TrEMBL record:
Top EC class of this enzyme: transferase
Example GO BP: phospholipid biosynthetic process
GO CC aspect terms: cytoplasm
EC identifiers of the protein: 2.3.1.274
Subunit structure, as described in the record: Homodimer. Probably interacts with PlsY.
Protein name as catalogued: Phosphate acyltransferase
Domain of life assignment: Bacteria
Species assigned in the record: Limnospira maxima CS-328
Recorded family membership: Belongs to the PlsX family.
Biochemical pathway: Lipid metabolism; phospholipid metabolism
Keyword Lipid metabolism attached: yes
Signal peptide segment: none
Compartments where found: Cytoplasm
Designated gene of the protein: plsX
UniProt main location, coarse: cytoplasm
Amino acid sequence: MGLTSARIAIDAMGGDHAPTEVVAGALMAQEKFGVDVILVGDPQQIEASLKEHHSNSPLPEIVPAEGTIEMHEEPLGAIKRKPNASINVAMNLVKQKKADAVVSAGHSGAAMASALLRVGRIRGIDRPAIGAVLPTMVRSSPVLILDVGANVDCRPKFLEQFAVMGSIYSQYVLGVDNPTVGLLNIGEESSKGDDLAVRTYQMLQENSLISFAGNAEGRDVLTGKFNVIVCDGFVGNVLLKFAEGVGEAVLQLLREELSSGLRSQLGATLLKPSLKRFKQRVDHVEHGGALLLGVAGICIIGHGSSKAPTICNAIRMARDAVNNEVLERINLQYQKHQKQAIEQES
């Protein structure tokens, strides 16, 4: 299919460094990827940030909003109390077909609640999941982990739906041919784990829409053996934060070791191109954020600490999801899945 100029609504007030870094990242993405960005939030603050980060590109459209959802607020209640908050206004743009996607580095729970209330779920999906991409030992095979925070308590059918959505995203956006799916567990055997794991294993094994490769232990996550790994949001969030912490620790250790002496400094100079590529593979900044899969609109949830490069990469993720028709493909697969289930019952 031909690529379109995606229109991305940016929650300009969401995140620790909003709106300055969010605006800077939006301008960067506009120049780099040719997307149309819509900045949603306080017009005065956004205009001040635009002046600070002057660009040769046309100025983005600004859509006014009133306030934001603070990190300490309970998401659902705050979303209802503040209908004109920046995340709500951005989601409304998608609902009204005035934008193709939303990017927010604000309250992730609020982003999910707003997406559910305003754009709804894809038909056939019970719970949305947040999917995060991590690098693996195999350069061309990143791993998609889901859920990494949307659902603390899961049923087997939720995990089965995560597997189908993750497979579609891995194939059409990450470019993995016939992605393999793993169930995060404490052992390889099908009988391992709690009741949720055992029942989910059976369901994944019987699902013809995915290529299920069995249980994935913690040590398997970054090997490249699995392209999609499913788990509940509690475990997934811990796994994601741990992986990010390991990446940051390795980068810091390398910096310290390569600046500790003349020989190391000379070696660092020679290794500079390789170290730069290594940083790009392990640094979460390069991945931009996580896609909220299962809602009837494209929503990328960024880190609260996101700065301009991360926001820029989150917008790239949104553009790729739009151009690769992720929503349409998930919807098509689920209609196929439901039809097969009806035929089996009859």
